[in-house]
Each structure stands twice: as C-alpha cells, then as structure tokens.
Design brief:
The chain is built from 12 helices and 9 strands. It is an alpha/beta fold. It is globular and about 55 Å long. The N terminus is likely disordered.
C-alpha cells in the first residue's frame, strides 16, 4: 500500500516565483530594462519587441532613404503633415487638433500604441525631436520614445533592414491636447520677471549673439535674458548620431546655469532646433515648454525686449 502524498499548499508568493522562472529570460529582461517612460530605447530592445502588435515605428528622414531601407515594419512619417505655415507668416506651427488627430490615425496610431521614432541620420534629429514634441502635445509623450542612434546604429549592429512597405489599419487614437507644453508670446513676456523660469535659445552662438545671418526676423540678437545652448550640443559630436548620456546632459545643462528644479522655455528661429532641447529636458525631468513661434515672432515685434 502506498501512502497518499500530503497535499502541498502553494502560497501566492511561491506561485509568482514559479511563473517568473517559466518566463523566457530575454522577455523578462526587456520588460524590466526598458520601462514605458524611457525616452530613448536601445536597438536590442526594439529588435526584441518588433513583433509586438501595439508597437508603431515611425521613420523620419528623406522619403527616398526610407524607400531604400528601413527597419522592418516601420512606417514613413512626414513631419510636414504636422507642421503649418500660417497666413501671418509664422512657419512650422502646430496644426489644429482635428487635423493632427487625422494624421496620427493615418499613421496607424491607437490609444495603446507604443511609438518609437527612428531618425534616418544626424541631420534628421531636429525634425525627429519635433515629431516627439508634437506627439507630446497630442498627449502621447508618455508612450513615445526615440531609437538611440537611429537607423545608423541599427544597421551598424547588423540588424535586418527592409524595403517592403508594411500594411496596417487606420488608427483610432483619440488625442488629448496638452496645451501646457506650448507657450505664447504673452506668456514668455510675463516669464521674464519669473525668477524660476529660464529661457534657452537653441540657435547657434552666432545667431544668438546677433553676429550671424538671421533670416527669420528683422532684429538680430536673442530674447532678453535667454542663455544659449545650441541644439547640436545634446548629441555626441561624432558620426554616431547618439544622444549624450543622462550624466553628460545633466552637466551640460548645469554648466549653462540650468539647475534641476527650474522651469525651462526653449525656442529657436522657427521651433525646430528648440525641439532636441525640449526632448532632452523632458528626459532629464525638467518642467519645460516650447515657444512654438520662437524668434521669428519675437524678433519682428519692436515692442518686445531683446539683448
């Protein structure tokens, strides 16, 4: 006679540990290491998650380059679909809410989409950052990230590229505008006396100082009190097209007298170069807004102070 084995009681904690053991290590690693709020994702993470049905990879760059090669499943995103030139002469402005939602749906974006922006090369970083800003304005920033190193990093690591166009259904995203990420001329003027706000000019040093050619306004110089942090300084000054590390970016911002805790307002000539600063400031945890009309508006209004 065999004795009946005693029933084993498995606690909830033990059951959880058993489930964790059964999960493939690579899947567990990607879930832990790449949090939803990460602003930069690695090529390895993206490769592991390419089959995720909620993933949307947006390729920004020249259409000819996209047609030649892109990450499998990537969709071409034309930034010009979400930039508006207004009748008053202001360029590169945000579109109306209903038009923005229509474009994002045409890219196959849904409310649960995890959006990854892949920039084609270093020249595409400002516009790709502007795309991030636009998605943040649409209320999707918390589910959007950039691919660190872009397509160049992907290819250099020997990962597969494709010429095939992916098929996808029109998305059903319902955008929720975050008006607070945008700031008007009047609000910028009011902030000049706010000791907790810092204006950051993303243009080159020559344009900031008024010594370089300025084709967007009638007055050379910069908004009164603004500090200069050229947009290209947030990326490594080599051919890698990589954003600098968080530690390097923290030092860069602090060297420009932009300590954590202050509110930042980024601007440039027309709102494009200011976007990489907006992106990195968000990544570092700053409260940041982008002056969309930028110096093209401020520099042509003689009533507004400049240095």
């Amino acid at each position: 006679m065999f004795r009946k084995a005693p029933k084993m009681k498995i606690s909830k904690v033990q059951l959880l540990l058993i489930c964790l053991v059964l999960i493939p290590f690579s899947a567990l690693f990607s879930q832990i290491q790449q949090k939803d709020r990460d602003f930069l994702v690695s090529t390895d993470w993206l490769e592991e998650n390419l089959t995720d049905s909620s993933l949307v990879v947006l390729h920004y760059g020249l259409k000819t380059g996209f047609d030649e090669e892109h990450i499998p499943g990537a969709r071409y995103a034309s930034i010009w679909d979400v930039l508006v030139n207004k009748e008053n002469g202001l360029r590169h402005e945000l579109p109306a809410e209903e038009n923005l939602e229509k474009v994002l749906r045409s890219w196959g974006i849904n409310n649960n989409s995890r959006i990854i922006i892949c920039y084609q090369d270093g020249n595409a970083i400002p516009m790709a950052s502007r795309l991030f800003y636009t998605l943040d304005y649409a209320g999707l920033g918390h589910q959007t990230a950039m691919l660190q190193g872009g397509l160049k990093a992907w290819k250099e690591e020997g990962k597969r590229v494709s010429r095939e166009l992916s098929s996808f259904s029109e998305g059903k995203v319902d955008i929720k505008i975050k008006a607070e990420v945008r700031i008007s001329k009047e609000e910028v003027f009011a902030s000049l006396d706010d000791g907790n706000a810092r204006l950051v000019d993303a243009r080159t040093g020559e344009r900031y100082s008024g010594m370089g050619e300025e084709d967007h306004s009638t007055r050379p110089g910069h908004i009164k009190g603004a500090v200069n942090l050229p947009f290209f300084e947030v990326t490594r000054q080599d051919s890698s097209h990589l954003f600098k590390t968080r530690e390097e970016l923290h030092r860069l911002f602090e060297d420009k007298k932009l300590p954590g805790g202050v509110a930042l307002i980024t601007y440039c000539g027309t709102g494009i170069w200011a976007s990489p600063l907006y992106f990195t400031a968000r990544m570092l945890g700053y409260s940041v807004r982008l002056y969309d009309a930028s110096y093209q508006e401020w520099g042509t209004d003689d009533s507004l102070p400049i240095d």
